[in-house]
Amino acid sequence: ASTLKAAAEAKGRYFGTALTRGDLSNTTLTNLAAAQFDMVTPGNEMKWDTTESSRGSFNWGPGDQIVSFAQSHSMRVRGHTLVWHNQLPNWVSSLPTNQVQAAMENHITTEATHYRGKVYSWDVVNEPYNEDGSLRQDVFYKAMGSGYIADALRTAHAADPNAKLYINDYNIEGINAKSNGLYSLAQTLVAQGVPLNGIGFESHFIVGQVPSTLQANMQRFADLGLDVAVTELDDRIQMPADSSELQQQGRDYGMIVNACLAVSRCVGVSQWGVDDGHSWIPGTFPGYGAPMMWDSSYQPKAAYTAALNAL
Ligand code: XIL
């Protein structure tokens, strides 16, 4: 196959990207995205600070634009995200504790109902873990304890019974304290019949540092009866990137695609963006860049060839 999506589909998988509203006016970028990818995650447009910046007042415009782009190019959508401590409006964090649950449930119900039938999956809870495997003491945890996660999943399931419901996090790609914490929660949720369908492994990697236990870790979650997905892949390099680092990045992308293909319940891989020129990495990790499969002139890099050849 000559595109990522065709090659992924031949293996029963998808290959996705993240797009922001700003990206939609860049026709070079959108043409490339539509040619290569069959899944879209909105980069920011379905987050709480966009969809409900003041209590009870919902704004669907930005998210709808991403959905409509996806639909017009036969791409599916990963909804991202309903409950997260970041990009959360101040009104939520400053609510009296006894109002947080109602606000969370209303947010989930209203957003998941709006997008019912239009999203393949939801990252219902995003980044709930600390590095040591304990749950973050965020506003949701403080109000409801660890039960907020099951409550969020049940609320999302009631609003959109067909969407695959995920917990999504970073630094859980290898077997470590953080993924062990999530693993025991996932075991409990599955045993209790809570509607959890999948685990999203963000996969914001540093070149040469893809965890060797990636495949085994995805497999142990899959063995619980869950789907797994690489949801936000990028592989950053300390700038300036030299040719050996770009070759290593190719080996990293190949290894990640191979790990997904080796796990039958790995449904797909999504890169967090399209080209190096629009990635979030340089703005968030100063000194790092070049994390994507296409460079800032939209030329395919070794990482693209390696991903395609691995499929
Ligand atoms: C990032 C976006 O790409 C940026 O534009 C924004 O400023 C911050 O958030 N984990 C996630 C994503 O789950 O939502 C984040 O996206 C990247 C880290």
From TrEMBL:
Domain GH10: 1-310
Enzyme class: hydrolase
Gene Ontology molecular-function annotations: endo-1,4-beta-xylanase activity; polysaccharide binding
EC number: 3.2.1.8
GO biological-process terms attached to the record: xylan catabolic process
Known catalytic reactions: Endohydrolysis of (1->4)-beta-D-xylosidic linkages in xylans
Keywords, alphabetical: Carbohydrate metabolism, Glycosidase, Hydrolase, Polysaccharide degradation, Signal, Xylan degradation
Similarity comment: Belongs to the glycosyl hydrolase 10 (cellulase F) family.
Protein name: Beta-xylanase
Residues represented out of the complete protein: 42 to 352 of 484
